[in-house]
Amino acid sequence: MIVVSNRIQVAAGHEAAFEKRFEGRAGLVENHPGFIRLEILRPTSVKMHGTTMGGSDYYVVLTYWENEAAFLRWTESDDFRVAHANRPPKEMFAGPNVFEMHEVIQTAAKSHA
């Protein structure tokens, strides 16, 4: 399994508009062969051991795929072009997106014992 992450640096004051865009997304990726799931992460901070940690400017969009080939087929599809056609205004971003792909080498989940 692979995980594709797109870290998106949202400009201050544009967070609500950015999140609203995902509420109205086309929902096309869910039907592609090899797609497993999508997660959209909002940056948050926490006070831990007397220090504030986290709270980055990056939202993270994660998509999980059975393999790299499935992800590449998605990026070459008409549905991908439709899903990414309505580009947001440049002012919404404080910097370039950061694309990353990782292969899952281990997972753990809560035991149901």
What's the topology here?
Blueprint: E1 2-9, H1 15-23, E2 35-41, E3 45-48, E4 51-54, E5 58-65, H2 68-75, H3 78-83, E6 98-103
Explain what the structure shows.
The protein is of the alpha+beta class and 113 residues long. Helices cover 20% and strands 33% of the residues. The protein has three helices and six strands. It has helices at 15-23, 68-75, 78-83; strands at 2-9, 35-41, 45-48, 51-54, 58-65, 98-103. The strands form two sheets. Strands 2-5-1-6 form a four-stranded antiparallel beta sheet. It has a two-stranded antiparallel ribbon with strand order 3-4. The longest helix is centred in the first third of the chain and has 9 residues, at 15-23. It starts with a strand and ends in a 10-residue tail after the last strand. The mean pLDDT is 94.
Shape: globular
What is the total tally of β strands? Answer: 6
What is the class in the CATH system? Alpha Beta
Number of helices: 3
Structural class determined from secondary elements: alpha+beta
The percent range for strand residues is: 25-35%
Distance between the amino and carboxyl termini: 26 Å
